[in-house]
Amino acid sequence: MKINQLSKLTNVLSKTIRYYEDVGLLPQASRNSNGYREYSSSDVDNLIFIRRCRELQIPLEKIKILIQVQTDTTSSCNEVDLLIEQQLENVRKTINELSLLEKTLHTLAKSCSNDIVGECEILKNLKQ
Amino acid sequence: MKINQLSKLTNVLSKTIRYYEDVGLLPQASRNSNGYREYSSSDVDNLIFIRRCRELQIPLEKIKILIQVQTDTTSSCNEVDLLIEQQLENVRKTINELSLLEKTLHTLAKSCSNDIVGECEILKNLKQ
DNA sequence: ATAAACCTTACTGTTGGAGTAAGGTCAAGC
DNA sequence: GCTTGACCTTACTCCAACAGTAAGGTTTAT
To answer: Distance in angstroms, CA of B15 to C1' of C22?
Structure first.
């Protein structure tokens, strides 16, 4: 199949598929006589795997590792466990930071009931 | 004062101060005879305001608006209120998205108790 | 024949800076 | 007088993960 069909099957833009090839996340696609990229059903599977990882906000470099680990199916999956665990930690850390931010913004938003900028409590608070 | 002292007083890197000038967040600094940037205490205040906004993850373009609104102290602060409210909404939305992500990652992390990649439940789950 | 849909590479832009290069200036110490 | 180190300058590249656009070649349908 051609790139556009792969795109539709995986819900990944053609542009992004080419980009993944560029940065080495996907192998160089084979080409048919007119130079168009030619894909098979295993490419669909690989790309869906990548998309699922991206939905979990795993960065491309880590996805590369996850792909490479699978080339030897008998190797330990400690690396996989660790990577997912780290990703979970990252997400939790970000949530905590954003929660603090939310509190601050909420307090700030409630602080002003004036009409004119010169007496705006929000702006005053931002200056400290 | 020179840029390095402004940097120390505000806890903003010299590099970043020049960048803010470049993108129009700070006015063009006046220069002394040798071409060095020369700052006053009002620059300290402005930069601290910007830094506080950045701590709240307000994007530079919106900070520009917050600065501009203050040039007329009699104007309404509806725009300020709205901007902070939107920022709060953005943060809340992101927190919600990340909370879903956290659940998924947590479930995923618990799913595998195997040793070898070939049977790793995490990887299997990622392929669906 | 031609138009629409698809394919190609290559370059730029996004956000908010950080890193590095290559060079000018200034004060202190020897 | 000379050097050393701290400071200043501009200008360029890099980061993540693409999206947008240009300029052109190919295929398919009408």
So the answer is: 17
Residue of A81, A89, A100 whose CA lies nearest to B119: A81
Q: What is the pLDDT of residues B56-100, one digit of tens each?
A: 999 999 999 999 988 887 877 888 999 999 999 999 999 999 999
Core vs surface per residue A55-91: b (16+ CB within 10 A) or e:
ebebeeeebeebbebbeeeebebeebbebbeebbebb
What CATH number should be reported for the domain whose range is B1-75?
A: 1.10.1660.10
Fold of A1-74: Multidrug-efflux Transporter Regulator; Chain: A; Domain 2 (1.10.1660)
Confidence tier at A27 by pLDDT (50, 70, 90): very high
CB contact under 8 A, B105 and A91: yes
